[in-house]
Amino acid sequence: MINKVHHIAIISLDYEVSKQFYTDVLGLEVIREVYREERKSYKLDLALNGEYIIELFSFPNPPKRQSRPESCGLRHLAFEVDDLDKIIAHCKSYNVIAEPIRVDEFTQKRFTFIADPDYLPIEFYEK
């Protein structure tokens, strides 16, 4: 049976820009970074609070994909936060602008979205 989500894999268009976004803006920790010569690809393993959660990849000329929350496929990546206003201000300090705050109609919790450098929707959901 399934125990938990092991990791999420993301392919970036500009590896260095995405690496900076996920480590500096979101504050994820680098576990390991390797360059795979045979694939001409970087693989960066990232953790949140010591738990491995994201693999960030680079590949030569990856095809673009629709990525708005309402597009078919992966809808978004969501992170739980204690203080939504604080994370919005933190992102703004890196010129990453959040969408207007919404309220979940079922839980009454506040949430918002930002976009990573490849426009992957990222949600911040207040605890």
UniProtKB/TrEMBL annotation:
Protein name according to UniProt: Glyoxylase I family protein
Could you tell me which residue ranges the VOC domain spans? 4-127
What InterPro entries does the annotation carry? Fosfomycin_Res_Enzymes (IPR051332), Glyas_Bleomycin-R_OHBP_Dase (IPR029068), Glyas_Fos-R_dOase_dom (IPR004360), VOC_core (IPR037523), YwkD-like_dom (IPR037478)
Q: Source species, please?
A: Maribacter orientalis
Question: What GO molecular function annotations does the UniProt record carry, in alphabetical order?
Answer: metal ion binding
Instruction: List the SUPFAM superfamilies.
Output: Glyoxalase/Bleomycin resistance protein/Dihydroxybiphenyl dioxygenase
Q: Does the keyword Transport apply?
A: no
* Keywords in alphabetical order: Metal-binding
